[in-house]
C-alpha cells in the first residue's frame, strides 16, 4: 500500500548542497528536514546495484567511460565527491544496501528509481526487487519508479503489491492505458511540462501526481495549487523555508 508521501522529496538526496546520490547527500537531506529521498539505481558490470544517475562515470566520479563495463570493486575505488567540492573528497558511489541502511537509520522514506543501463531494464528491476524484499521487506515508506516500461512491468510481475510510480517525461499517447496495466500507484511527471490542465488530466485517473524537479518556491506553490501531491527538489530545506515565508 502507498504510504503518505510528504510534499517535498529530496532529489538524489539534497543535490544542491552535496554530491548527488551519495551517503553525504542523503545525510544532508535528512539534516535539512526532508522526510523522503529519491535516488537512482543502476547495476555494475558484475550485477551489484549501486546508486548513480548517469550511464557514464565522468560527471559524478573521477572515473571515465560507461557504467556497464566497471566492476563493483573498481567502482568503489572512485571518488564521487571531489567533483562537487573538496569537502566531499572520499565519498564513494554507494551500494543500494548502504543507502537502504542509512535511510532506515535516519527514518527516511525512499523513492527508488530503477535507472537501467540501456538493455538492462529487466535485470536491473529484478535485482532491485530482490534487494528490497530482503532489506526493506515491509514496503512501508517506499515507492519504486522508472521511466522504463519493461522495468516497471518486471517490478509489477515480481512484486504485485509494491507501491509503483510511473515516471513520465514526454508521455506516450497511451500513458493512461500503460498506467492502468501496470497498476501504477503514482504518476511522476516533469514539472516543466505541467499546466493546470495536464495535472487535472493526470489526477482524473485517481493517482497522486508527483513532479520533478522543483527548486523554486513559487513554482512549487503553483503546482500544489493545481493538485500536485509532492515535488522532488534538490533543496528541501531552502524550499521549505521559502514556502513558509510565502
Ligand atoms: O524521480 C524523479 C527524477 O529523479 C527523474 O529524473 O533524471 O533526475 O532521475 P532524473
Ligand atoms: Mg531520479
Structural commentary:
With 246 residues, the protein is α/β, with parallel strands linked by helices. The protein has a domain at 8-17 and 28-47 and 108-244: TIM Barrel. The chain has nine helices and nine strands. It has an eight-stranded parallel beta barrel, surrounded by eight helices. Helix 4 packs parallel to helix 5 and helix 8 crosses helix 9. The model has no long low-confidence stretch (mean pLDDT 97). It binds SN-glycerol-3-phosphate and magnesium ion (MG). Magnesium ion (MG) binds at residues 38, 40, 113.
Beta content: 15-25%
Report mean pLDDT, rounded to a whole number. 97
Strand order of the largest sheet: 1-2-4-5-6-7-8-9
The major sheet is characterized as: 8 strands, parallel, barrel
Bound chemical compounds? SN-glycerol-3-phosphate, magnesium ion
Shape: globular
The arrangement of helices and strands along the chain is EHEEHHEHEHEHEHEHEH
Taking the alpha carbons of the first and last residues, their distance comes to: 33 Å
Task: Write out key terms for the chains shown.
single chain; alpha/beta; TIM Barrel; 8-stranded parallel β-barrel; binds SN-glycerol-3-phosphate
Briefly, what is this?
Helices cover 33% and strands 18% of the residues.
Could you give the topology of this structure?
Layout: E1 8-11, H1 23-31, E2 36-43, E3 49-51, H2 72-75, H3 96-105, E4 109-114, H4 121-135, E5 142-146, H5 149-158, E6 164-168, H6 175-182, E7 186-190, H7 196-203, E8 209-212, H8 217-225, E9 230-233, H9 236-244
Parallel strand pairs: 1-2, 1-9, 2-4, 4-5, 5-6, 6-7, 7-8, 8-9
Antiparallel strand pairs: 2-3
Magnesium ion binds next to strand 2.
Amino acid at each position: 500500500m502507498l504510504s503518505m508521501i510528504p510534499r517535498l522529496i529530496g532529489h538524489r538526496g539534497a543535490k544542491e548542497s552535496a554530491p548527488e546520490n551519495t551517503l553525504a547527500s542523503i545525510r544532508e537531506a535528512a539534516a535539512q528536514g526532508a522526510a523522503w529521498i529519491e535516488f537512482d539505481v543502476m547495476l555494475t558490470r558484475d550485477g551489484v546495484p549501486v546508486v548513480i544517475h548517469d550511464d557514464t562515470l565522468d560527471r559524478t566520479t573521477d572515473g571515465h567511460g560507461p557504467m556497464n563495463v566497471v566492476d563493483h570493486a573498481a567502482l568503489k575505488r572512485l571518488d564521487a565527491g571531489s567533483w562537487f567540492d573538496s569537502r566531499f573528497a572520499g565519498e564513494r558511489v554507494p551500494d543500494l544496501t548502504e543507502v537502504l541502511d542509512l535511510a532506515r537509520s535516519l527514518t527516511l522514506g525512499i523513492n527508488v528509481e530503477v535507472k537501467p543501463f540501456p538493455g538492462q531494464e529487466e535485470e536491473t528491476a529484478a535485482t532491485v526487487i530482490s534487494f528490497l524484499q530482503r532489506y526493506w521487506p515491509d514496503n512501508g515508506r517506499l515507492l519504486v519508479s522508472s521511466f522504463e516500461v519493461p522495468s516497471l512491468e518486471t517490478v509489477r510481475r515480481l512484486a504485485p503489491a509494491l507501491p509503483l510510480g510511473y515516471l513520465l517525461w514526454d508521455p506516450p499517447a497511451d500513458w493512461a492505458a500503460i498506467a492502468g496495466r501496470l497498476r501504477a500507484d503514482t504518476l511522476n511527471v516533469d514539472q516543466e511540462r505541467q499546466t493546470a490542465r495536464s495535472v487535472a488530466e493526470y489526477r482524473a485517473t485517481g493517482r497522486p501526481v508527483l513532479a520533478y524537479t522543483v527548486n523554486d518556491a513559487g513554482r512549487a506553490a503553483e503546482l500544489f495549487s493545481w493538485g500536485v501531491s509532492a515535488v522532488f527538489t534538490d533543496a528541501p530545506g531552502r524550499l521549505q523555508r521559502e514556502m513558509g515565508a510565502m
